């Protein structure tokens, strides 16, 4: 059996999170998605604080899907912390945002995001994008073993 891919999804929009999780279920590679609703929870998960202190509750992710505009701590601040931590340098981070503003894109890439995706407003297009994202990151992308 293939190794289960651990995905951390930091997304405050419950509908977007649900659609993404359903899309990722359709792929041949076994995966488990841990959904957090804001940047503070994402940091707690990654750095095993609070309710995520037990490593069984917060396994090291193979992929991080990060919303840009979240409550408490925004996606850029979370990305900064991720990239400052040596233990996560090899973990791909995909920024998901409704913003196509050039400063947001430049800032994310300046912090070494692996991909910046603008969420389409159309539900069908958003579903297709999430399906494509899941297929690429779970089926095609190779990375070193931790």
Helix content: 25-40%
Strand order of the largest sheet: 2-1-3-4-5
How many E-type strands?
5
Strand content: 15-25%
Based on the structure given, which CATH architecture is correct?
Answer: 3-Layer(aba) Sandwich
Query: Given the C-alpha coordinates, what overall shape results?
Result: globular
| Integer average pLDDT | 88
Entry summary:
The protein is 39% helix and 18% strand.
Describe the fold and architecture.
Helix 1 packs across helix 5 and helix 2 (39-46) runs parallel beside helix 3. The chain has helices spanning 14-25, 39-46, 75-84, 102-110, 123-140, and strands at 5-10, 31-36, 63-67, 93-97, 115-118. 39% of the residues lie in helices and 18% in strands. The two termini are 18 Å apart. The protein is built from five helices and five strands. Strands 2-1-3-4-5 form a five-stranded parallel β-sheet, with helices on both faces. Helix 1 links the parallel strand 1 (5-10) and strand 2 (31-36). It has a single domain (5-140), classed as Rossmann fold (3-Layer(aba) Sandwich), CATH 3.40.50. The mean pLDDT is 88.
């Amino acid at each position: 059996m293939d190794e289960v891919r651990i995905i951390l999804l930091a997304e405050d929009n419950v509908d977007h999170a649900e659609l993404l999780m359903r899309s990722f279920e359709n792929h041949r590679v076994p995966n488990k998605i841990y959904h957090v609703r804001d940047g503070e929870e994402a940091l707690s998960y990654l750095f095993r604080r609070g309710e995520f202190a037990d490593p069984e509750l917060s396994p090291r992710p193979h992929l991080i899907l990060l919303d840009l505009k979240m409550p408490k701590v925004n996606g850029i601040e979370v990305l900064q912390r991720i990239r400052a931590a040596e233990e996560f340098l090899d973990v791909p981070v995909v920024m998901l945002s409704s913003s196509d503003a050039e400063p947001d894109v430049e800032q994310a890439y300046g912090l070494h995001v692996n991909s910046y995706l603008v969420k389409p407003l159309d539900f069908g297009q958003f579903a297709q994008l999430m399906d494509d994202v899941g297929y690429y990151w779970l089926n095609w992308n190779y990375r070193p073993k931790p």
